[in-house]
Amino acid sequence: MNINKFSLEGKIAWITGGSYGIGFAIAEAYADCGATIVFNDINEDLVNKGLAAFNEKGIKAYGFVCDVTDENAVNALVKKVEVEIGTIDILVNNAGIIKRIPMHEMSAEDFRKVIDVDLNAPFICAKAVIPAMKEKGHGKIINICSMMSELGRETVSAYAAAKGGLKMLTRNICSEYGEYNIQCNGIGPGYIATPQTAPLRERQADGSRHPFDSFIIAKTPADRWGNVEDLQGPAVFLASEASDFVNGHVLYVDGGILAYIGKQP
Ligand code: NAP
Ligand code: GCO
What we know:
This protein is an alpha/beta fold. It has helices at residues 21-32, 44-56, 71-84, 108-136, 157-177, 211-219, 232-239, and strands at residues 12-16, 36-41, 61-65, 90-93, 139-144, 182-189, 250-253. 40% of the residues lie in helices and 14% in strands. The N and C termini lie far apart (46 Å). The structure holds NADP nicotinamide-adenine-dinucleotide phosphate and D-gluconic acid (GCO). NADP nicotinamide-adenine-dinucleotide phosphate binds at residues 16-17, 19-23, 40-42, 46, 67-69, 94-97, 117, 144, 146, 189, 191-192, 194-197.
């Protein structure tokens, strides 16, 4: 097999919410494989934080302030990138939020906000890049799903609904655009140590592990939380020619949680 199938040389990759966390790690891996990196975040401070972090890694990245829920802003970003840098070959819908509130206490506004960022925005961003991908005759769209695309748990009703919907949006983009050589797949990270999950890992006052931390360790065959580097290889695979016949799939990178009933207490 030609190992260059995993190369991203000459490709332009847009990672939404890529200033830090999972998005940044994926962007770093794509840059290491030769891609030009475009990222956005919700405010200038975060974009500058991301630019500084990429610069520290020796990566020339293009950063933009853009709220992915704002369709006009997204379309303007894509147009600007196409004019100044080139058409986008790879889109990673990474930007996301979570609100951990018991459903009976959650406002409809909070529910809508999570759906807006975690489901409506991936639709907006994918819709913005598909026309040029159709024109070029190829494209890769990678939606960052979640174990909550498959499972529920207390307090994450909006997030699970959004990520479940994102799994089906992934399958529908595959169905509608596969004939144009556009592959749309998901990555379903398990529990990854990032700012988003920091509240679930905080040490207790007595120095003991957070109960949820212990719970996840017992549910994970790998016996550890994931780190952002665990996602880099799968993300490169799904962005590269090596996955041209993989479409509509959610690749779970979860250390085996979804396969495991959990360690007996
Ligand atoms: P994170 O640390 O919260 O980072 C999310 C990024 O998206 C942040 O830079 C955030 O900016 C940005 N963002 C949020 N709303 C945005 C908007 N409207 N427009 C533009 N950017 C926006 O999350 P993460 O842990 O790296 O997770 C990244 C993705 O993986 C998310 O979709 C998450 O649901 C998913 N995921 C995470 C885990 C995990 O265990 N960490 C597991 C499965 C799936 P702000 O800082 O301003 O919010
Ligand atoms: C939670 C966590 C999870 C992870 C991830 C798991 O509160 O349960 O935040 O939702 O973020 O989505 O795959």
